[in-house]
Amino acid sequence: MARRSALPPVHDAAVLRARLDRAREAAAGTGLVIAPGSDLRYLIGQPGGSFERLTALVIPADGAPALVVPKLEAPGFDGLEELGVEVLTWVDGVDPYDLAAERLGGAERVAVSDFTPALHVFGIRDAVPKAEQVLAGPIVRELRMRKDAAEIAALRKAGAAIDRVHARVGEWLRPGRTEAEVGADIAAALVEEGHTEADFVIVGSGPNGASPHHALSDRVIETGDVVVVDIGGPVAEGYNSDSTRTYAVGNPRDADVAATYTVLQEAQQAAVDAVRPGATAESIDAAARDVITAAGFGDYFIHRTGHGIGLDVHEEPYIVAGNDLRLEEGMAFSIEPGIYQAGRWGARIEDIVVVTADGVESMNNQPHDLVVLI
Predict the structure, then answer these.
(1) Burial of 329 (0-12, 13-18, 19+ CB in 10 A)
(2) What 8-state DSSP symbol labels residue 363?
(3) Which of 47, 9, 13, 28 is nearest to 312 (CA)?
(4) What ranges in 148-245 are assigned the alpha helix state H?
(5) Where would I find the Creatinase N-terminal domain in this sequence (predicted)?
């Protein structure tokens, strides 16, 4: 039974070969073992699937990389010879961890991708018992944080697609419907407007909007509700959208909504304006947080200002206090401050931005105003 479908490569062979070379250089003498997932897609253009049988890209400190893959899964990885990646197939009854160990040679240190199943982590450890085993995340994320032109183009495409969905929310968000009903319509529209699937749909109405990761419920939307709509998904190239807008179904019932929302707009804009090469990730968080705190809402902003985005919805860099990483051209992340008043209502504004040579470019262009649906 087929359990995954091959996806088109993200880039051409020359780009992927360069990524493999940079991964080896960044590893600095450490062997890499990359399991299926976004890291694998970044390096060879195909994500694969992780099951009880080992599939892993093995990049030795010296020598050619190889994909260790069950023979029955190998047809999904056509074209790897163009990347200089040898395909090492195995069948049931053969120990695939020995194949990986042979390619790693006498490595003294092996870095395993962060989301490798424990089954395979232990298998690699036992096959290379003398090697120190560490996470590959710190190595690979240094490559993935800086998006190239094709990746930024894919993020623009995703941003435009999610903007089109937000522009249509008034078609579905109205009194008498449940969050789940509205969410189902939004999920369908995500695909209609250019995503391959709906990765997540949050419709937080009234008091549910004060829970940042509320998803959907059977709560019936009422006139006067403030509603947080946070949605996203991948486009064909594998890169993701993620955008939040806040709506009101009729005039908000709470008298403080307009003034509070204005503070949120100012905070979100302050953070965007602070983005430039050389600024620290924590300074962008501070730019938003300082505005909200000065207005008396500091205790109601209960999460970081943003997260990186690309092949994963959440990846490096994280826009959070304590992260002194200096931003560089090509880094992409969300800016999404929120104010959440438990038991009452919440609001969030979220755009994806990319650091440019002299500032910032937003991937989202829907207005930031509170959208009042009459």
Answers:
(1) middle
(2) S
(3) 47
(4) 149-166, 179-192
(5) 19-145
Within this chain, do residues 132 and 156 fall inside the same structural domain, yes or no? no
Overall domain count for the chain: 2
| 13-41: burial string, b at 16+ Cβ within 10 Å, e else | beebbebbeebbebbeebbbbbbbbbbbb
Which letter, b or e, does each residue of 144-172 get, where b requires 16 or more Cβ atoms within 10 Å of its Cβ? bbebeeebbebbbbbbbbbbebbeebeeb
The string of pLDDT tens digits covering residues 83-111 is 999 999 999 999 999 999 999 998 899 99
Q: How far is the C-alpha of 47 from the C-alpha of 39, rounded, in Å?
A: 8
**φ/ψ (deg, to 5) at 81:** -65, -30
**Residue 235 neighbours by CB under 8 Å, 6+ apart:** 154, 157, 158, 161, 194, 195, 196, 241
Q: Which of 179, 150, 167 lies closest to 367, judged by CA?
A: 167
Instruction: For residue 364, give both structure tokens.
Output: 């989202």
Q: Measuring CA to CA, which residue among 287, 365, 284 is closest to residue 331?
A: 284
- Domain span at residue 65? 13-144
What CATH number corresponds to the domain at position 36?
A: 3.40.350.10
Q: What is the pLDDT of residues 162-213, one digit of tens each?
A: 999 999 999 999 999 999 999 999 999 999 999 999 999 999 999 999 999 9
